């Protein structure tokens, strides 16, 4: 077994609902990792170039483990590469937050703030789920994403308490990102079935804790948590923003130009 992968599941243990759930988590990590890769050679400093690259690598590592497991759980035997490179836009089930364009550095920080606080809580709860392989993954991933959260927290405070311009940009970034955060906690029929069976926890109960933690960071930054008048949704059902198509085209370009190619 390759490092970072989850153990094989025998055919008799195929679980379509769990496969869909794992695919969602894998898509979140893959798409956000791809977005962060777009900062390479474009970050404000060399240190940030390296920091964002390392965060992206962690996320893509999570995606590889989760999507490979999804291919075993759904009985198709698809690999992580199959999931990443051969699906259409509508087949991706990531939350819309993860596909938002990077914008300026403050927008990326705000997106990371919302996502990382959610991901740590979600993976910590997953570490106690009934599936031992997912539980082990959740425990490891929570520790890794905690470093991503620390990075986002520090930059939120730095920008909020920096210059008038940096504070303005951070405020605008929070307002840009916040309508997309609620989708992370949505509970649909799939999640209700899995939670009712005790297979995995629902993310819905995590929202109050998440809000308390991000509010603490935003307040320390001298800013206020936005109160959006609308909430984005649809990513879990394959409905994406118009910026998603170019992102996936970029991700899949080499594979589509050289199908079956090996290096």
Summed up:
This protein has 263 residues and is mostly helical. The protein is built from ten helices and no strands.
Compute the CA-based radius of gyration: 18 Å
- According to CATH, what is the topology? Ferritin
Q: What's the β-strand tally? A: 0
N→C terminal distance: 21 Å
List keywords for this structure.
263 residues, mainly alpha, Ferritin, 10 helices, 0% strand, Ferritin-like_SF
Topology of this structure?
Blueprint: H1 16-37, H2 46-73, H3 80-86, H4 96-99, H5 105-126, H6 132-160, H7 164-177, H8 189-196, H9 207-220, H10 244-257
Textual characterization of the structure:
The protein has 263 residues and is an all-alpha fold. Helix content is 62%, strand content 0%. It has one domain: Ferritin, core subunit, four-helix bundle (Ferritin, Up-down Bundle), CATH 1.20.1260.10. It has helices at residues 16-37, 46-73, 80-86, 96-99, 105-126, 132-160, 164-177, 189-196, 207-220, 244-257. The chain starts with 15 loop residues before the first helix and ends in a 6-residue tail after the last helix.
